[in-house]
Amino acid sequence: DAGVIQSPRHEVTEMGQEVTLRCKPISGHNSLFWYRQTMMRGLELLIYFNNNVPIDDSGMPEDRFSAKMPNASFSTLKIQPSEPRDSAVYFCASSRTASNSPLHFGNGTRLTVT
Amino acid sequence: GQQVMQIPQYQHVQEGEDFTTYCNSSTTLSNIQWYKQRPGGHPVFLIQLVKSGEVKKQKRLTFQFGEAKKNSSLHITATQTTDVGTYFCAGPEGGGNKLTFGTGTQLKVEL
Predict the structure, then answer these.
(1) What chain B residue is nearest to A33 in terms of C-alpha separation?
(2) What is the pLDDT of residues A38-49, one digit of tens each?
(3) Which of B33, B43, B95 sits opposite A105 (nearest CB)?
(4) Beta strands in chain A (DSSP E)
(5) Rounded Cα–Cα distance for residues A43 and A49 (Å)
(6) Are A4 and A108 in contact (CB under 8 A)?
(7) Contact A100 B30 (CB under 8 A)
(8) Does the beta-carbon distance from A55 to B98 stay under 8 Å?
(9) What confidence tens digit (pLDDT) does each residue in A73-106 have?
(10) Helix, strand, or coil (residue A86)
């Protein structure tokens, strides 16, 4: 089991540029979550999918953020245009769909927007 | 929406001392999960509690779920440097699998 795989590990970009973060969940996991972690706000859920369908995107900060899950083995989180306040660590996590299933997190993408 | 608070926010202890973090939810939880995040790492699942008043142990770690299923605690006996990290509790919102994470307690252990 390779675990949840995220890329890139680090991303440094200039304000206004488009950023795309990628995630491959654990095979057999039907739920996928995107979290953002900052010192000020802790771990925030941005969006989650069940069976490739977005269930709750109420945590997405604004229209500059979008997420897709075109198939069971791949998801993207896109920020366009990026702003310095988007700087954070973005985690992808996957789990089985049951409400008591633990989350398995990827190593995260550390995004810095200058 | 659901809020999950943890205290303390930070804790510095000498190696060998005990440590406790407390978790409080604004709503009743069907279960509570605990995660540990090492510095520079990602959250890693430790344990899940489901029953009211449940107590579970993992070596030096003791987890407890409150009778009202709105609070929980993690107690570490005789801390070691390997215990360093941030401990999060997390509870599902509503009946689904959307997890709300607590604010976390950062533990530092000094020799």
Answers:
(1) B98
(2) 999 999 999 999
(3) B43
(4) 5-7, 10-13, 19-24, 31-38, 42-50, 53-56, 65-71, 74-79, 88-95, 104-105, 109-113
(5) 17
(6) no
(7) yes
(8) yes
(9) 999 999 999 999 999 999 999 998 766 789 999 9
(10) helix
